[in-house]
């Protein structure tokens, strides 16, 4: 019954999108479809407004992000191939529409990857004598691993869209990324926008005055102040996670939002 319902809703929703895109094209506009990149437990295209397709996150709790203190975070992690494939499947559906491109909204749904088992295993291969959970998110070693994972997804996304467009006989789709306001702020959450541009994984991006801050005052080890004291961190995080991991938006800077074409 659910498969029948999903199919019927897709046909209904596709007609809405087809009409919207056609209307925009008649007006001389380029039409991009947006997708929030936070793979949380929630609706996926084409049901974003219908709140129907909730099953993937609910049925796969083993694929959630995990904080350094072992607590599960309400976001699916891109460190798992299954999560990446789930997101790619959504974009393959978008490629069947006549939109000019897709907009990847990376300013919603953070985090995308934290300290899951695949992350720690990859980290240990490069830094066998270091506990990744004791390092701040600002540490270049942590950021390097996180950025590797998301960039690998971006490569898969670029190829998936190119292949799908060829398969259905349509023009290539552009990829636009909606990201934070600086290279360093983006790397903090695993987004290596500079590398994406070098590899032509994106065609353009918009910068939004947003950053995420890890507040670690009083949570570092006494003898090794560059490392996190996991006991202190666990107490603070479980009291209030958002006191430790904080989202900050400079609303006064909204007017300097920028758009840069890569190719």
What does this structure look like?
Residues about 45-55 and about 250-260 have low confidence and may be disordered. Strand 2 and strand 3 (about 70-75) form a beta hairpin. The strands form three sheets. The chain has a five-stranded mixed beta sheet with strand order 1-4-5-6-9. About 40% of the residues lie in helices and about 15% in strands. With about 260 residues, it is an alpha/beta fold. The chain is built from nine helices and nine strands. It is elongated.
How large is the share of residues in beta strands?
Answer: 15-25%
* Most strands sheet: 5 strands, mixed
DSSP helical segment count: 9
Number of strands: 9
Shape field: elongated
Oligomer: single chain
Count of the domains: 1
- Average pLDDT metric: 85
Low-confidence stretches: 46-53, 251-259
Radius of gyration over C-alpha positions, nearest whole angstrom = 20 Å
User: What is the spatial order of strands in the main beta sheet?
Assistant: 1-4-5-6-9
N→C terminal distance:
45 Å
The ordered H/E elements are HEHEEHEHHEHHEEHHEE
Supply the helix-strand structural class. alpha/beta
Q: Helicity, in percent? A: 40-55%
